[in-house]
Amino acid sequence: MLIISPAISIPDQELVERFVRATGPGGQNVNKVSTAVELRFDALNSPSLPEDLRARLLARRDRRITGDGVVVISAQRFRTQDRNREDARDRLVALIQAAQHVPKKRIATKPSKGSKERRLTGKRERSEVKSGRGSRGWEREA
Predict the structure, then answer these.
(1) 36-42 vs 2-3, strand pairing mode
(2) 63 lies in a domain?
(3) How many domains does the chain have?
């Protein structure tokens, strides 16, 4: 059982773990032992997640979420299978907890009188600079 919050938990039957060989340095141990963990969680079809949380989770632009709504987390930070398994589960919990946060709705506001005045003053000054660049008023001596 993976506990996300007091109200939300994911049973182990919904998690698929696959153990593979880790990449990178490590000598003979890397070549012999499958210590890396690939954790898969089908968020799209999970009955454990509330509908609004599922929508926020799947709407995230995260490379760990596939187009089919499956969250894939691979962990190979540690040398043992148990620690990598724990790390992958912790990262899944962190991802779902981040999606629990409901973004605050933005309230549209009008620009203040002072900000309007500053904008118009700046436009006027810029206009004067540009109008002064013309060739008007210059007499050519021949």
Answers:
(1) unpaired
(2) yes
(3) 1
Question: What does DSSP assign to residue 65?
Answer: B
CATH number at residue 7: 3.30.160.20
Structural contact between residues 43 and 61, judged by C-beta atoms closer than 8 angstroms:
no
- From the number of C-beta atoms within 10 Å of its C-beta (0-12, 13-18, 19+), residue 89 rates as buried
Helix (H) / strand (E) element for 17: namely strand 15-20
What range defines the domain where residue 64 resides?
Answer: 2-100
Name the residue among 52, 137, 127 with its Cα closest to residue 96: 52
Specify the pTM.
0.69
| Residue 83 domain flag | yes
**Does some domain include residue 130?**
no
pLDDT in tens, 58-116: 888 888 888 888 889 999 888 888 999 999 999 999 998 888 888 889 999 999 999 99
